[in-house]
Amino acid sequence: MSIFTHESMTNHHTPDHHASGLLNQVGETLHVWWERYERRRELSQWTERDLHDIGMSRSDIVFETEKPFWRA
């Protein structure tokens, strides 16, 4: 009787597996960055009344929109 199982003998951590995981992480990061960029761009176009309704000032928006897309 063998002490090795089929699962223990197969390599689940192939280079392709790691590459696809890395590509998924990169894709997710790019998606977050794009969403952040889009939200900030949209927020910059809001009117004073819109900002007042959510309790933000124009200076709050300027501060937020001047951040680089990679910074939360």
UniProtKB/TrEMBL annotation:
It comes from the Bacteria. InterPro entries: YjiS-like. Pfam families: YjiS-like. Residues 1-20 are annotated as: Disordered. Residues 9-19 have a biased composition (Basic and acidic residues). Residues 28-61 form the YjiS-like domain. This is Uncharacterized protein YjiS (DUF1127 family). It comes from Bradyrhizobium macuxiense.
